[in-house]
């Protein structure tokens, strides 16, 4: 008989209470801010040296979540964010760009937000909300998959996973032409466009143009700091940080600040260095100089995002709407550790032929550069690996929530939370209910849990210690339950074997407990199998 009864949270259909939590206004506005490929420790509230005063102000007025999990890639997270369900249920079991012939078209592997779920926009619109979106969609390219057809009254979106941040509209990689739509109609970006500024302008304009007194959902999905690393010239030289110290010193300084801030435990150590990524001391002086420049540009992008977040917050304050607005800030996954030549159908020759990657042009129009594995590991401090992996560096994200009725100011919680919880939380606080059917389809009930009791201060947790959260990505696997996490990482970054870590004290996943705790390991593996069966995981290739 098992010593531990495993109760997967995903096996219980969630019924969202329509009772407004004590202190939180009835039908509040929601401002949902998502940044793209930003690491856990980049911003100042989570120990970063990059100055982010606007994001810091959200944290100072609210609650920081240190155990908040997302998907390992852009569209996986976005499908869970807007559906409250697992990405394997919602249509993005794998990114559309990476679907294999064995996966494509199977339930949950459509490559877009499917009809087994409805979006947060649809539910809140049905509950009397105005719904706005600006920024990255990455949940389908066809007209019927557009935000305007998934519940958003107003939207200006980039449909693909990325593009130039400037007005040239060139593709991020080979055969990946960007498509922009406003309110479902194909359009182009204006002259002088810079992504973060423009999307902030759009979301402000949508809120300004609102003539009625309905509550609103404003979803601001920045495409920065996703590569290509681009930033306006005035930000390129406006820096106060020093990256000449190299990877190790910056990581150590971040970890020290994180401990002082209560982001990680005092026992936390830095993760092992990433296989195949050169260490700072192995780089030549010229290589180090280039690495320094890359991180300066990346940091400038993050600082620029913060500036535009500040503009949106200022609009809310000046209009008085802040008094009834819950603000949520998060990153969609870990920092990106791969260069642009590694994208599908691309390669270094294509990048060289189609880019102006002279050092003097880095960060400017025509350049195609990325921060790379060394700085991605720094951004993930103290975690292991980064985007596209199920190690903590790929799937643990900073989350900050503030607003009226949330009785926390600059506080931190280590309660386990998941991106699937955002939609159920908004739906519950709006007094709405997730439908059972839509357009003749029986819907899969959300798997996430409302966070309202924790946000109102009436509870200190969202998940019980025996409730599990699972992941799968390109045949790698992970499961978190209580303080323990089991992972299986395929080669070349892993050995294809299950490992178990106590991530409450070992967030860097250094001390494998699988041999010392065989029964726990067996339980976690079994729980992952239950998760995979429930959400319908399909491997990359058919079993032989």
Summarize the structure.
The chain has 544 residues and is an alpha/beta fold. The chain has a single domain (9-535), classed as Alkaline Phosphatase, subunit A (3-Layer(aba) Sandwich).
Largest sheet: 11 strands, mixed
| Helicity level | 25-40%
Fraction in beta strands:
15-25%
How many strand units? 17
CATH architecture: 3-Layer(aba) Sandwich
The name CATH uses for the topology is Alkaline Phosphatase, subunit A
| Low-pLDDT segments | 1-20
| Head-to-tail CA distance between termini | 34 Å
Count of discrete alpha- or pi-helical segments spanning 4 or more residues: 14
CATH superfamily: Alkaline Phosphatase, subunit A
Q: What does the overall shape look like?
A: globular
Structural class, please? alpha/beta
Number of domains: 1
CATH class: Alpha Beta
Rg, please? 22 Å
Overall pLDDT metric: 94
Organism: Halioglobus maricola
Domain Sulfatase N-terminal: 28-432
InterPro entries: Alkaline_phosphatase_core_sf, Sulfatase, Sulfatase_CS, Sulfatase_N
Keywords: Calcium, Hydrolase, Metal-binding, Signal
């Amino acid at each position: 008989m098992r010593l531990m009864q495993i109760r997967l949270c995903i096996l219980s259909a969630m019924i969202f209470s329509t009772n407004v939590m004590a202190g939180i206004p009835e039908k509040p506005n929601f401002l949902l801010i998502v940044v793209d490929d930003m690491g856990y420790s980049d911003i100042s509230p989570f120990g970063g040296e990059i100055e982010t005063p606007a994001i810091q102000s959200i944290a100072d007025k609210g609650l920081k979540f240190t155990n908040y999990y997302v998907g390992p890639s852009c569209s996986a997270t976005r499908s869970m964010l807007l559906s409250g369900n697992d990405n394997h249920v919602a249509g993005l079991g794998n990114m559309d760009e990476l679907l294999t012939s064995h996966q494509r078209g199977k339930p949950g592997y459509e490559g877009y937000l499917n009809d087994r779920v409805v979006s947060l926009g649809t539910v809140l619109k049905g509950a009397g909300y105005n719904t706005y979106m600006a920024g990255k969609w990455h949940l389908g390219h066809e007209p019927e998959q557009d935000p305007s057809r998934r519940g958003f009254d107003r939207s200006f979106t980039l449909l693909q996973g990325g593009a130039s941040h400037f007005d040239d509209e060139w593709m991020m990689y080979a055969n990946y032409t960007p498509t922009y739509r406003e309110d479902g109609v194909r359009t182009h970006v204006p002259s002088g466009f810079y992504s973060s500024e423009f999307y902030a302008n759009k979301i402000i304009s949508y809120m300004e143009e609102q003539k009625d007194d309905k509550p609103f959902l404003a979803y601001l999905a920045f495409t920065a700091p996703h590569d290509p690393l681009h930033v306006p010239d005035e930000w390129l030289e406006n820096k106060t940080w020093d990256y000449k110290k190299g990877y190790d010193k910056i990581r150590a300084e971040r970890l020290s600040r994180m401990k002082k801030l209560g982001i990680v435990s005092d026992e936390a150590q830095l993760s092992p260095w990433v296989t195949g990524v050169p260490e700072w001391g192995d780089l030549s002086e010229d290589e180090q100089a280039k690495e320094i420049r890359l991180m300066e540009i990346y940091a400038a992008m993050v600082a620029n995002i913060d500036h535009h977040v500040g503009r949106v917050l200022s609009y809310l304050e000046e209009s008085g709407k802040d008094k009834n607005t819950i603000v949520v800030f998060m990153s969609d996954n870990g920092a990106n550790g791969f260069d642009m030549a590694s994208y599908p159908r691309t390669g270094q020759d294509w990048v060289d032929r189609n880019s102006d990657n002279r050092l003097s042009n880095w960060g400017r129009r025509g350049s195609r550069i990325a921060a790379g594995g060394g700085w991605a590991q720094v951004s993930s401090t103290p975690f292991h690996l980064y985007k596209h992996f199920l190690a903590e560096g790929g799937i643990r994200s900073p989350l900050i929530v503030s607003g009226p009725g949330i009785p926390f100011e600059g506080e931190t919680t280590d309660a386990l939370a998941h991106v699937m919880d955002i939609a159920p939380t908004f739906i519950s606080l709006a007094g709405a209910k997730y439908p059972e059917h839509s357009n003749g389809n029986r819907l899969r009930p959300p798997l996430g849990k409302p966070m309202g009791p924790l946000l109102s201060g009436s509870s200190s947790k969202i998940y019980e210690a025996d409730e599990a959260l699972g992941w799968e990505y390109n045949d790698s696997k992970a499961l978190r339950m209580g303080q323990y996490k089991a992972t299986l990482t395929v080669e070349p970054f892993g050995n294809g074997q299950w490992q178990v870590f106590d991530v409450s004290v070992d967030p860097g996943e250094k001390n494998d407990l699988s041999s010392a705790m065989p029964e726990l390991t067996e339980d976690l593996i079994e729980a992952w199998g239950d998760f995979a069966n429930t959400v319908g995981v399909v491997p990359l290739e058919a079993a032989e």
